[in-house]
Amino acid sequence: xxxxxxxxxxxxxxxxxxxxxxxxxxxxxxxxxxxxxxxxxxxxxx
Amino acid sequence: xxxxxxxxxxxxxxxxxxxxxxxxxxxxxxxxxxxxxxxxxxxxxxxxxxxxxxxxxxxxxxxxxxxxxxxxxxxxxxxxxxxxxxxxxxxxxxxxxxxxxxxxxxxxxxxxxxxxxxxxxxxxxxxxxxxxxxxxxxxxxxxxxxxxxxxxxxxxxxxxxxxxxxxxxxxxxxxxxxxxxxxxxxxxxxxxxxxxxxxxxxxxxxxx
Lengths: 46, 208
Fold this sequence. Notes:
Chain A has 46 residues and is an alpha+beta fold.
């Protein structure tokens, strides 16, 4: 199963803060990634 | 980008090409609340699961603008900071079949879900943001200090965080925008934003 996580690249500082505030969630998906799954973080420039 | 990469050491960060969206089975757009126009790209996908952060928008409203139901499964989710880190993800679906498909697929990924009605504010953001708003009114009226309210709510009502502490962790922008979305949706006085909260929200855009 291929997963895409999308954050928007409108403001760089906001994007970093967005990820920092959700690190536990992202890390949960990292566990999924270690279980033969592909996780990619995609950035949409808007 | 480097800063983001250092936070997510083991992840690959790639710029998205819209035409590549189709090559993914599950797409999380946790930022969707602030860019709901992305619905046009997701709505055309087929046999995909798209999970979007949808506290400040109602999915039905977006579908109505599109004039049709999406061809893939789209569900909403409470992706606000602090809520997203809970063991259970608060989700919503506009159709039962979407809920069934999403629940099954997310379970496969080790993510437990609870579905609530598809409405602006969902359930927990609506309630928590209203409590925060009320706490701001209490301070504005001089009834109690922020510290006393935080302590009182934690010790007296066993809340995991005090309203001001929680507001800071969620982000004043999300709290304000959730309350504003609720007010615009319902025009109910209950959601009228406390001037003190609004002032702090506006200050957050002013660089020192």
